[in-house]
Amino acid sequence: MKVKCFLIVLFAMAINVSAQEITTFTGIWGMEYYQDDKEITKKEVKELFSSNDEIYSDWKKLTQKRVSLPLL
User: Fold this and answer.
1) Residue 50: how many CA atoms within 13 Å on its side-chain side?
2) Residue 4 burial by CB count (10 A; 0-12/13-18/19+): exposed, middle or buried?
3) What pTM was estimated for this model as a whole?
4) Taking a C-beta distance cutoff of 8 angstroms, is the pair 30, 23 a contact?
5) What is the per-residue burial (b if ≥16 Cβ within 10 Å, else e) of 42-62?
6) Of 37, 60, 35, 65, nearest to 50 (Cα)?
């Protein structure tokens, strides 16, 4: 009985787990952001990352470095 309950709970948790992928590309007019296969804005990326302090601080550092790099 305990094994069946454990498997049911494990199955229910596995259904609710979903991963998201954020991909960036350098486009003609600047950076382009995609969540899975859907294009999103920089504002939406910032909102997604702001829910996790560590990720948000890393992203903020990266964007600051990108702005300060000289154009070649």
Assistant:
1) 6
2) exposed
3) 0.55
4) no
5) eeebeebbeeeeeeeeebeee
6) 60
pLDDT digit string (tens) for the chain, length 72 residues: 887 777 777 666 665 555 667 888 888 888 899 988 899 998 998 888 888 888 888 888 887 876 665 655
Task: Write the DSSP assignment of the chain as a string of letters.
Answer: -HHHHHHHHHHHHHHH-----EEEEEETTEEEEEETTEEE-HHHHHHHHTTSHHHHHHHHHHHHHHHHSPP-
- What CA–CA distance (Å, rounded) separates 71 from 2? 62
